[in-house]
Amino acid sequence: MCHHYRLSILLLLFSLLLVNPLLYAGPKEDLVRYQGYFQKRFSNLSLDDLSNGLYNFDEGRREQWEAIMEFPPYEIAIEEGEELFNKPFGNGKRYADCFDNGGVAIAHTYPRFNAKTGKVQNISAVINECRVANGEKPLRYLKGEIVKLLTYMADTSRGKKIDIQVPDDPRALAAYEDGKRVYFTRRGVRDFACYHCHWEAAGQKIRGNVLSTAVGQVTHFPSYRSKWGAVGPIQRRYKGCMKNVGAVPLKAQSDAMNNLEYFHTHMSNGISMNAPGTRF
Ligand code: HEC
User: Fold this and answer.
1) pLDDT for residue 1
2) Which of 42, 93, 136, 188 qualifies as a FRET site for 66, CA 20 to 30 Å off?
């Protein structure tokens, strides 16, 4: 009797171990599923092609875009960003001292999970952390100097494949899962989630725009946008989409926003960076 009991417990544990990885979709399984979905649906496009967003689906806009890209409007921001990046702080230290590899060719690995704080950080957050640690005032997010710094740093990652890590730490996984929740949550008077437009309706027209695919959306950020008349980071774009559905946008650099960026960037792992980019 006792033997049987032990055996069945063992069998139960064994089957749980076997079955669990199949039931639980973690970041790795998600990635295969998400990218597989878009590759199957748009089989004429490669994974790297997906990073051309709406221009994959709108010939007219694509031609205009290619014309603009002959003299990319973000070039000045790269130059100004490089200058700012190399300018020492009052104490003689530099931004390069706060990043690995001196801050060069690392943009494709952000946002990252920070094991000290247990939270997700994008480059903007590290830039401000670096400034404060060196006795400088933090910069405001989303516009101005910080965007120029991002633009320069992203340019040094051009051609590198997005590589977002979700380390084996329950807090990192929780941040990723929270980002997923934000992504799939309906919001605003129009009651739409990101998912409804950039997944279900990807490639379709909505109010004169063709919707880009969720996978491949992050690779050209920060990006120059005619509507902004400037280069802007991805969280500024997220806020725009939240406003468009009639929702109060999440705050830049809030946990929810950072987790969204973490989840959303992870789904483009393996796709080449082409930032900075240009959009209408
Ligand atoms: C009502 C539909 C709608 C919803 C919901 C929506 N967006 Fe958008 N989004 C658009 C449209 C339209 C554009 C401009 C066309 C394009 O690039 O897809 C856009 C553009 C973007 C872009 C820029 C793409 C590029 O190539 O530069 C990103 C990134 C983005 N959305 C992310 C999100 C996220 C994240 C959410 C959820 C918080 C979201 N969107 C919700 C309609 C939507």
Assistant:
1) 47
2) 42
Would you say how long the chain is, in residues?
A: 280
Ligand 1 pocket by C-beta < 6 Å: which residues?
A: 53-54, 192, 194, 196-198, 206, 209, 211-212, 217, 223, 234, 237-238, 241-242, 244-245, 264, 279
Question: Which of 110, 118, 119 is CA-nearest to residue 127?
Answer: 110
Q: Choose the residue to mutate in 57, 65, 198, 213 for probing ligand 1, maximizing ligand atoms within 8 Å of C-beta.
A: 198
Percent of the chain with pLDDT over 90: 90
What would the pLDDT profile of 98-115 be if each residue is shown by its tens digit?
Answer: 999 999 999 999 999 999
Give the confidence band of 25 by pLDDT, cuts at 50, 70, 90.
confident
Task: Give the nearest ligand 1 atom to 202 CA.
Answer: 18
Taking the C-alpha atoms of residue 31 and residue 59, their distance in angstroms, rounded to an integer, is 29
**Cα 181 from Cα 178, distance rounded (Å):** 5
| Residue 23 reports pLDDT greater than 90 | no
- Single out the residue of 198, 233, 232 nearest to residue 217, CA to CA: 198
Whether the CA torsion 23, 212, 234, 247 is positive or negative: it is: negative
Asked whether the beta carbons of 145 and 84 are under 8 A apart, the reply is yes
If you average pLDDT over every residue of the chain, what do you get? 93
Tokens at 41, concatenated: 């649906």
Ligand 1, closest atom to CA 225? 27
CB 221 within 8 A of CB 211: no
